[in-house]
Amino acid sequence: MSDEHRSLGMNRQIDRRDFLNGVALTVAGASTALGFVPAAMAQDVSGVSGTANYPPKRLGLRGNFPDAVSEFESIRQGKYAAFPVADSEIQEEYDLVIVGAGMSGLAAAHFWRTGLGQDQRVLILDNHDDFGGHAKRNEFQHEGRTYIGVGGTLGIATPYPYSYGAKQLVKELGVDVKRSADFANRDLEAKYNLRAGTFFDKEHFLEDRLVVGNPRSVEFFERAPLTDAARKDLIRIHSKNPDYMAGMSDAEKEAKLAKMSYQDYLLHVAKISPDAIAFFLGNGGRNNKRVDTTPALEAAQHGLPGFNGLGLRLEETFNEGSFTFHFPDGNASIARLLVNRLIPGAVPGERDMNTIVQAAVNYDKLDSPDSSMRIRLSSTVVRVQNENSPGDAGTVKIAYIKGGKLKAVRGRNCILACYNALIPSLVPEIPQHQKDALAYPAKVPLIYTNVLIRRWTAFQKLGVSRISTPGMYYSYMSLDPGTTMGGYHGVTTPDEPIVVHMVANPNKPGLPRKEQNRIGAHELLTAKFEEFELKIRQQLARVLGSSGFDPAEDIVALAVNRWPYGYAYTYDTLADPDVPPEQRPHIIGRQRCGRIAIANSDAGAAAFTNQAWDEANRAVEELFVLNGLT
Ligand SMILES: Cc1cc2nc3c(=O)[nH]c(=O)nc-3n(C[C@H](O)[C@H](O)[C@H](O)COP(=O)(O)OP(=O)(O)OC[C@H]3O[C@@H](n4cnc5c(N)ncnc54)[C@H](O)[C@@H]3O)c2cc1C
Asked: Which of 70, 120, 317, 491 has its CA 20 to 30 A from that of 381?
């Protein structure tokens, strides 16, 4: 065992004795005791039952956790192409069956029942053990207190204009976006004078060093461990730049910038030293594009350094800034508010934006035979088939696997609010050109890891609340103190435990963007929890070790939310051909097939909540029209 491992508290093999499904175990005498972990939770490692069926408390590998997606490869390979359940075994029938309990699927159920009445029989099937899709939360319990982390979708702000329907939904859920400040905890930063920091790692820079302060200032770069050439160039492009494209018209400049990467612009137009590029490695452009996959024009529109001498008057990218709002658990509370509307008994008590975060969802009520609205979790849909020719009034049968058993239901209508790339395998009857269109994009993989630590004195000593780590596996980490609201207690002092939120964007620099996404997704699907854990411990030790952080002692529990099926893919001028809107793959791909309509943010080619809702609205309307409703 290397010294490095020892210093990380890894001087014994990490297995379930030491770290059970994301929760550090304490060793009492000769036996392993669970310490703060409720005994029931210890049996909850399979992610199926235990802890009174409360999925947000399940830790370890979460997000698209292995059991949830284990059937996807068989679906892709055509194992269920012949409908796998006999008609005689299909007993349940619904007005609408929705595949996917993410923002889009939940909203589709809401729009459907708003249009046709609350007595409509609707079933939502989802492969995860919790609803919300990407909008998930992690709950840590430690010494009698609950700490909540954001497991995926954070907020409802967006660069795409809000439709009337999406705005109405926010209103109907009782979310007053103007109260954003009440839900954001900025007190800690002011009280303890915490600032942003950047950690320079020795693999990409001259040595390991944390530099605190504004990462655009001359003074910042003077303290950074950079070669003289890199320092000089970074100061230059963060200052007033000359016109590196002098002699070209604005239109020529923009056309050129649209077709080159930000990396190529920095290296070959602004001519910065190759040593300086590492500083930009952690920069996720829109849709988590990297410095080598972000079009230079997009970087310029976003105000990234290096362009202010070009004299371009670039259109500011739209931002629905008035919707900047999020709960301490991100959009998981929005999903809860939606479920509360759909199945009133599932979230006991009067629930509104002030109290939803603390509500204990009754998961046993989600799929009650007494209710016309049902959400069936841990149910992977494997095949969806129209029973009549497209256009006829007919039905759709939907086969799924739950608890290892194949089952099926029948719907008079069906909405696929699931990952669009899986649809050609779920519905092999769709035309080839539509299959090709659905296969075009590559979802963007991401990891949102939440680490509960015993105290954050190390952050306090360093004077930082958030740290960019451009060369490392996790490119960003920040304290997530939560807010004191609705019975939930935010963190206020450095001696208290706190959630540290860490973000990684697995990819393969140098390759085309879609290939990078696919390789990153594969990496996420194949890595074991222990590999993520080691990376987390190593990184926290290196970044915070100088101020006394000891991973072995200070880490209480981990939730690694891996999202190989992450953001919907969006187009850009570098990677995608410039075609008329109606020829875009997502438009061709989302066409209704018989009584099956297609939703999900994938169908909008936009990774935003309002888009997921708009696509749900469109899919519902398509079926309303098909059913002759006016
Ligand atoms: C880490 C992360 C952070 C994000 N942050 C933001 C943010 O701050 N703001 C924002 O607006 N957007 C954010 N997004 C984008 C987010 O994807 C959308 O906002 C929105 O939540 C997508 O909802 P959806 O219903 O379209 O898709 P999803 O949330 O992916 O829901 C689809 C559901 O269908 C299920 N499904 C798939 N296949 C099957 C099957 N065969 N059987 C049964 N169920 C199936 C999936 O498991 C999933 O539960 C984030 C995404 C990620 C991954």
From this structure: 120
pTM comes to: 0.92
d(C-alpha 569, C-alpha 165), whole Å: 23
Q: Summarize pLDDT for 115-164 with one digit per residue, the tens.
A: 999 999 999 999 999 999 999 999 999 999 999 999 999 999 888 889 99
Q: What's the DSSP call for residue 581?
A: G
Per-residue CA distances from 43 to 63, 402, 444, 450, 559 (Å): 20, 20, 33, 21, 17
> Does residue 127 line the site of ligand 1, with CB under 6 A?
yes
For atom 4 of ligand 1, the residue with the nearest CA is 153
Centre of ligand 1 to C-alpha 615, Å, is 13
For ligand 1, whether the C-beta of 307 sits within 6 Å is no
Q: Is 99 in the pocket of ligand 1 (CB under 6 A)?
A: yes
Kindly state the DSSP code that residue 295 receives in the 8-state scheme. B
DSSP class of 379: E
Pocket test for ligand 1, best of 134, 339, 505, 614 (most atoms within 8 A of CB): 134
The span from the CA of 528 to the CA of 61, in Å, is 8
Atom 30 in ligand 1: which residue has the minimum CA distance?
Answer: 133
Q: Is 329 in the pocket of ligand 1 (CB under 6 A)?
A: no
Task: Please give, one letter per residue, the 3-state secondary structure of 75-99.
Answer: HHCCCCCCCCCCHHHCCCEECEEEE
Q: Indicate the DSSP class of residue 568.
A: P
User: CA-CA distance, 11 to 204, in Å (whole number)?
Assistant: 27
Give CA–CA dist 607/570, Å, rounded. 7
- Where b means 16+ CB within 10 Å and e means fewer, 378-395 reads bbbbbbbbbeeeeeeeeb
Could you tell me if the CB of 557 is within 6 A of ligand 1?
no
- Centre of ligand 1 to C-alpha 630, Å, is 31
Q: How many CA atoms lie within 13 A of 519 on its CB side?
A: 11
Give the model confidence (pLDDT) of 306-363 as tens digits. Answer: 999 999 998 766 677 778 888 889 999 999 999 999 999 899 887 899 899 988 899 9
Count of Cβ atoms closer than 10 Å to residue 446 Cβ: 25
Quick one: three-class SS letters along 322-372?
HHCCCECCECHHHHHHHHHHHCHHHCCCCCCCCCHHHCCCCHHHCCCCCCC
Structure tokens at 105: 């699927």
Residue type for position 499: V
**How far, in Å, is the centroid of ligand 1 from the Cα of 103?**
7
- Report CA(328)–ligand 1 centroid distance (Å): 18
Kindly report the protein residue whose alpha carbon is nearest to atom 34 of ligand 1.
100
Separation of 158 CA from ligand 1 center, angstroms? 15
Which residue, judged by its Cα, is nearest atom 53 of ligand 1?
566
| Model confidence pLDDT, tens digit, residues 492-526 | 999 999 999 999 999 999 999 999 999 999 999 99
The two tokens of residue 248 are: 């070209």
Secondary element (H or E) of residue 495: none
**Beta-ladder partners of 123:** 97, 374
Q: Give the 3-state secondary structure of residue 572.
A: coil
Classify 190 as helix, strand or coil: helix
Span from the CA of 124 to the centroid of ligand 1 (angstroms): 15
Q: What are phi and psi of 452, to 5 degrees?
A: -85, 120
